[in-house]
Amino acid sequence: MTGSICVLAEQWRGHMSEVTYETLALGREVADQLGIPLTAILTGSNARELARTLGAADSVLYVDHPLLAEPVPQPCAQALAQVMADRRPRALLVPLTNVSLGVSTLLSIRLGVAAVNFCKDLTVVDGQLRALCVMYGGKIEVTVEAGGEPAILGIWPGARPADKGRASRPASTIEQITVALEEPRVRLKKYIDPEAGDVDLSRQDVLVAVGRGIQSRDNLGLVEELAKTLGGAVAGSRPVIDQGWLPLSRQVGKSGLTVRPKLYIALGISGAPEHVEGMKDSGLIVAVNSDPRAPIFNIAHYGIVADVVETLPSLTAAIGAKRSVSHHA
Amino acid sequence: MHILVLLKMVPDVVEELEIAPGGKALDLEYLRMILSESDDHALEEALVLKERHDARITVLALDAPEVDDALFTALAKGADRAIKIVGMDAGLSTRQAARVFSQTIAHEPGILPVDLILTGVQAIDDLDGLIAPLVADDMGLPYLGIITRLDLDAPKHLALAVKEYPGAVRGEFEVNLPAVLGMQAAEKPPRYVPVAKVRATMKSRTVDCLPVPTLADGGWPAVQVVEMRRNEPAGHAEMLEGAPTQVSERLCGILAEHGLL
């Protein structure tokens, strides 16, 4: 493992997260460019079987401990620090998700090294690892070097397709590491699964999603009208949910749902990475935003620079007329 | 019950962001600074807990443009004390900022004891780490982030926190107090306070200024910025232009071509 690229294999509720395979695919590319091995590190309870799914790596190190059954940041960082202490890798790639958030920061302190957040991609320039990071809600890109090893790099989901990080057979070396953990001061009592009953966004062909640009709860009626005209459902980005304008079951993004409808209309959504993560694989993406520099236009197929509230009536009317003609034809 | 809220100012991304000459940082001259959104939620949650548990709230912020507005607004909303840490260089990294917070909390008379430290889960400029786990580790306290609901069991010295997971799943946690929690969202939207009330607070209350503590060398390698640039829309989206009716007609045609109408 010394001198290798490492990937934190994220598992949650007994399953390997998709982002683990995405991050392994990125790690594989970087390791190959540097001509060094790729190691996956897994922490959990009863982790041996999951360790066998990480064959994209040359080797797997796993820690099996009852206190690591749930991904609580401090015990997880404590375990990783012990795993990495005597094996100084070039870098550890940590998925930037709600499951693993906080781990990279805590680990970097314990190892006395730098943490880099918000990484979208990694490149190798003259043998040096560089990270491309997306900051300020997606409006700024910055290329950085961690300036020391191991570099602890927080990687946004979606860096590479998950399929590129899967392998049909286990890694040739799978090694269990024993660690000592402190009594936990943060304890999971239970999970609360989303309530059934509302619209299941993941089953909709058409989603009309609203963000801060909708300005007021009073304008939601216009959005519902458009969704109804298209035969779809209304979804929302984080600020709209936090305002209480839409229920939690309608949230798309990091903390909400990941959706892949045939049509995703993003209204007044800036396109912060946390939202894009949940909808980037939609079939056709149309974005309406008054800010011509909104990052949502980077991933949309079609864009309209306009005020959402002013645009909605004519859009709904035009679509309604077109559908009416189609139905009578 | 004493709740400390750590506040950080960040650039308002609604405004145009310019890169400074040299291409490695934002041009500070034209930036409009606002309170980090999740810090605003941390403050709101503290105010909710104050109403529920008769707590005392201290807000602590690093000096930055517009920070006085944020601190007086916090006082107007119901915070009991506001502290501004002054005298540091501009452009502190998140790691340095966290160290300034934790050293001030530990060494400045009158801040400790603290039962709960709240701050935003993540700011848009947290390139080299997150404030909450950094402060927690520095102070030897438990940490949990992405919190959207919070209550306290004061007699048992416990916080009951709900954390967000993917897929709209939530996790209910028990956290030993004192602790540092990173708030994603308060249980209700941050309250509004009229400008007139903030102005009145500016006349009747004060913000305490404390000098930045002398930091021992952190001993960690810093993140080196090679290049910073605006994330220009890469031309991926085909932009539809014209009057609203023309644009709507054009989009209808596109949706029809894709079999979506």
Architecture overview:
The complex is a heterodimer of chains A (about 325) and B (about 260). With about 325 residues, chain A is α/β, with parallel strands linked by helices. Chain A contains nine helices and 17 strands. Chain A has helices spanning about 20-35, 50, 75-85, 105-110, 220-230, 240, 275, 295-300, 310-329, and strands spanning about 5-10, 10, 15, 40-45, 60-65, 90-95, 115-125, 130-135, 140-145, 150-155, 175, 185-190, 205-210, 235, 265, 285-290, 300-305. In chain A, the strands form three sheets. Chain A has a nine-stranded mixed beta sheet with strand order 9-8-7-10-6-1-4-5-11. In chain A, strands 14-13-15-16-17 form a five-stranded parallel beta sheet. In chain A, strands 2-3 form a two-stranded antiparallel ribbon. In chain A, strand 2 and strand 3 form a beta hairpin. In chain A, helix 5 (about 220-230) packs parallel to helix 9. Chain B has about 260 residues and is of the alpha/beta class. Chain B has a single domain (about 1-210), classed as HUPs (Rossmann fold, 3-Layer(aba) Sandwich), CATH 3.40.50.620. Helices cover about 30% and strands about 30% of the residues of chain B. Chain B contains six helices and 13 strands. Chain B has helices at about 35-55, 65-75, 95-105, 130-140, 195-205, 245-255, and strands spanning about 1-5, 10, 35, 55-60, 80-85, 115-120, 145-155, 160-165, 170-175, 180-185, 210, 225-230, 240. In chain B, strands 9-8-7-10-6-1-4-5-11 form a nine-stranded mixed beta sheet, with helices on both faces. A two-stranded antiparallel ribbon of chain B has the order 2-3. In chain B, helix 2 (about 65-75) crosses helix 5 (about 195-205) and helix 3 (about 95-105) crosses helix 4. The termini of chain B are far apart. In chain B, about 45% of the residues are buried. The mean pLDDT of chain B is about 95. The interface between A and B is large, with 97 and 84 residues.
